Inverse folding.
């Protein structure tokens, strides 16, 4: 159980070092070490500590948040195709955050609005999928796709009536961009706290993955556990959206691939998702900064290029 997490931790460390060193200006490893010790040139300190380190930590936190949210949703639905982006949670959080931005609210209110939007999206998806009977994973997935398309239409309407001087930043934010994330610490704190709080429930999540009837027969309080997952997944998604915008497919790819390698024990999958999701997004953001340097791509473009074929493959495989 410990060895996979140590390996992923080492990969995360390597990804962070690469992100600090690579870019339009390459910083060698010895100079990075000097800056971390409080030495080095003023230019390197400004480049690493003021620009690259906050951006890298924001990518690390956002990827971890989305991957853990995706892992929780996949356990809840017992479906490897579930993730906050596909089910419309990211779209609802984005609409809530954009409304708060247009109203000129502060960061805390923007985060609260994003959480409210994610919760509304969750209630819509599960309410519509349930209908007059019980929902099935495929029905829930289709409902989520339709609701996500509806959120996309609302976002398009908001962009159409937004003053032109606000559009460039909003568009980059909607595509997923960590370049403007200057305060990654709240997102990191939410990620660590959420993983710590959910780990005592990992055994119950293992039972819930076998189905609600089996979980109830084994003494698990199914309904409170499901609502805990709803709330936590919404909080994680809202925090990720307010940190770096709408980034798709991280919550789909990472937990599914980890299950193929590590099995389906949530005591391993949840912390491993936090590390692997953060590592994936750090590497994707590094690629987005360097592939056409000095120009930069939104990191959401890179994750979409990786996620779309993976999603189609999983959809074909689950037939």
């Amino acid at each position: 159980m410990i060895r996979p997490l140590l390996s992923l931790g080492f990969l995360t460390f390597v990804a962070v070092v690469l992100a600090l060193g690579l870019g339009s200006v390459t910083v060698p490893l010895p100079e990075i070490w000097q800056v971390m010790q409080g030495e080095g040139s003023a230019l390197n300190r400004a480049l690493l500590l003021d620009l690259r380190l906050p951006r890298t930590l924001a990518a690390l936190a956002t990827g971890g948040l989305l991957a853990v949210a995706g892992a929780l949703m996949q356990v809840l639905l017992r479906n490897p195709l579930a993730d906050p982006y596909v089910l419309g949670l990211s779209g609802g959080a984005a609409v809530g955050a954009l409304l708060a931005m247009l109203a000129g609210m502060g960061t805390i209110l923007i985060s609260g609005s994003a959480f409210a939007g994610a919760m509304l999206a969750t209630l819509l998806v599960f309410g519509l999928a349930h209908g007059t009977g019980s929902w099935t994973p495929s029905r829930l997935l289709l409902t989520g796709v339709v609701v996500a398309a509806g959120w996309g239409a609302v976002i398009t309407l908001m962009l159409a009536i937004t003053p032109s001087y606000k559009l460039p930043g909003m568009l980059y934010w909607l595509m997923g961009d960590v370049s403007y994330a200057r305060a990654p610490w709240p997102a990191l704190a939410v990620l660590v706290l959420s993983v710590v709080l959910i780990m005592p429930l990992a055994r119950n999540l293992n039972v819930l993955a076998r189905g609600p009837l089996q979980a109830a027969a084994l003494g698990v309080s199914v309904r409170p556990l499901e609502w805990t997952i709803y709330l936590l997944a919404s909080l994680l998604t809202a925090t990720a959206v307010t940190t770096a915008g709408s980034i798709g497919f991280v919550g789909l790819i990472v937990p599914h691939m980890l299950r193929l390698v590590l099995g389906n024990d949530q005591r391993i999958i949840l912390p491993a998702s936090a590390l692997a999701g953060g590592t994936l997004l750090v590497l994707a953001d590094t690629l987005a900064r360097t592939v056409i340097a000095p120009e930069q791509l939104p990191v959401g473009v890179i994750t979409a290029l990786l996620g779309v074929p993976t999603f189609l493959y999983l959809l074909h495989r689950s037939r």
